[in-house]
Amino acid sequence: xxxxxxxxxxxxxxxxxxxxxxxxxxxxxxxxxxxxxxxxxxxxxxxxxxxxxxxxxxxxxxxxxxxxxxxxxxxxxxxxxxxxxxxxxxxxxxxxxxxxxxxxxxxxxxxxxxxxxxxxxxxxxxxxxxxxxxxxxxxxxxxxxx
Amino acid sequence: xxxxxxxxxxxxxxxxxxxxxxxxxxxxxxxxxxxxxxxxxxxxxxxxxxxxxxxxxxxxxxxxxxxxxxxxxxxxxxxxxxxxxxxxxxxxxxxxxxxxxxx
Lengths: 146, 103
Fold this sequence. Notes:
A: 146 residues; B: alpha+beta
């Protein structure tokens, strides 16, 4: 049975984005429709712990039957691009994009403020490229809305 | 299209979720953003004040995993539980985490 939330997602939105702060493990146990996605972006940073979490999540996403699972490398500094490429190759997931470490984002976080409209341009550009990557991946999929 | 954002705590999920949602909204898509955190982080990243974020009602579990009592149409659910943010992304607050370390 489709949940009320599932119906709202299908009928009232073109794109639904779920910030899975609770973790895929938790959502798959108790989150109903929240655990399922057409596309899963697994966010990593250049740290071993985030990579290990990503690896476990990718295994679980496969078990749940999530059809498209992509890695995203965040907070990338010089040289990290190769690191994220190697990790994604090891986990056998495409790399949807790399987002640079950005002083504007760090400072906005530190102050607890929003990223201003003109701030964090390299991050915003990287996010646009991720959206383009996802759109492209969904192209030609019957019934998919982008 | 349903897009899940997952990753270890602190990797930047919420910041990226908000920016992704804003890109889709800027392209004219109707965007729902669903927060599954007990802290209103996504609300803040989408431009709601702390007071506004506190007012976003938690979706009852019965509509997340079932059809509630069937009383709400999809449009009514979004209207009743959603908060429209400055970028026109509509925020829903779906779950309260009761166990520490669930992420």
